[in-house]
Structure to design on (436 residues):
DNA sequence: AAACAAGTGGAGGAAGCCCTCCACTTGTTT
DNA sequence: AAACAAGTGGAGGGCTTCCTCCACTTGTTT
């Protein structure tokens, strides 16, 4: 019976200075995670937000919780990209648009992959949104296949494969990383098309949880 | 004027027990690097070789030097794969065989990418072999393009792109990782072929030094 | 404006990493 | 077999990381 319209955070009123600090912390975290990856130290984030570490820890009791909060927007954006695509009447356009957009997000944000693959025991929302995205990907692939645009031997794991591969792209400038990612996606989509395709080696049995870079998080 | 037939290591005679320990260390290191990546601790490597850390450090004054030694075989194998391909009269077969083999090596060994991208200030051999491999890749690509099998808008950076992408593949079993890598390479090679190719987005200007996973090494 | 809960910063604890030191053991040489 | 250099193991130094503690400050309430 909270008065809050959506979201969960409400909880406690929070003093105005505290609220400002919290905002600055999340902004700094997003910035640093995006440009340097999830390995930035808590001290660094604190310094960039102009607060002490204690303040940071008072608001986010663990680094994971900060990561979760920092990427909440991103995963919602992700989910909406999938939702939009599901509303698109053109199956092939929907399919390639989703992959292009998600891969672009991944390429531009160095923390993206790590954030989405590390475990977040506290955040059910996260897992839930991810599961829905996964389901949406499958649906889009099925439609594209049914429409004859996507090769018949395409499997869901090929999406995982592309996301893993795209996660391997790192460059020192965001622009370069994005360009590289775009080219990779274009090449892969070309290969995914149902043109006179020679047979592929059997699809590996993966699952979305494999989109993981072990040393990245934590 | 050493009596040693090839290699460099000779240097000091080394007592037999020490020689055995050294061998065991390198074997353990190779094993652990391959299965767990470059992040395994020196203590771990020492324990797995049945020696104390001091022994390890006496033989390899720094972790980097151990990595270098552990991957010496691999880079030579790499170089010979390139050399073999350069001797192949069929340009397309040479081209795809090289990429398949190198990517397979990378997929099977979790430390591979990190080892080849971190700096090894002491080992000129390493950089030299890498440079030669780079040159060989370029030559093979040129030949494949000249023969009309490789699309005209292919650039050297596309090789880098594939290696980065392939480096993103991680799975908990070696078999799975290899299967995934094989499929990725097959898809990419399909896209590289000179069949009625629609234009690609412009190639990113990379360079082989970008095949890097920042948090991996050291 | 007084009073108090809420908020704050920085020192430092616990753990993990690479690497060093040194008293002890062991292979090798004469 | 005696003597000695070479080799060894494990404690711990220095650093970095995440996170906690507590004396102090500040916004808010009556």
């Amino acid at each position: 019976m909270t008065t809050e319209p959506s979201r969960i955070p409400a909880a406690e009123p929070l003093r105005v200075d505290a609220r400002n600090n919290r905002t600055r912390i999340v902004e700094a975290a997003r910035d640093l995670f995006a440009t340097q990856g999830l390995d930035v130290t808590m001290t660094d984030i604190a310094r960039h937000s102009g607060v002490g570490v204690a303040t940071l820890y008072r608001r986010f009791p663990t680094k994971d919780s900060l990561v979760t909060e920092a990427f909440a927007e991103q995963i919602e954006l992700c989910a909406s990209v999938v939702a939009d695509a599901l509303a698109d009447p053109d199956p092939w356009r929907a399919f390639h648009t989703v992959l292009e957009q998600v891969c672009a997000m991944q390429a531009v944000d160095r923390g993206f992959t790590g954030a989405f693959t590390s475990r977040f025991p506290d955040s059910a929302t996260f897992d839930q949104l991810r599961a829905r995205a996964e389901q949406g990907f499958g649906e889009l692939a099925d439609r594209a296949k049914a429409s004859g645009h996507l090769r018949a031997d395409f499997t869901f794991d090929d999406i995982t494969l592309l996301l893993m591969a795209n996660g391997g792209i790192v460059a020192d400038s965001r622009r370069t990383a994005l360009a590289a990612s775009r080219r990779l996606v274009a090449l892969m989509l070309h290969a995914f098309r149902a043109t006179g395709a020679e047979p592929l080696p059997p699809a590996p049995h993966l699952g979305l949880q494999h989109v993981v870079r072990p040393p990245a998080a934590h």
Q: What stands out?
A: Chain B touches chain A through 43 residues (CB under 8 Å). The two ends of chain B are 36 Å apart (CA to CA). Residues 14-15, 17-18, 21, 46, 51-55, 58 of chain B lie near DNA strand D (CB under 10 Å from a C1').
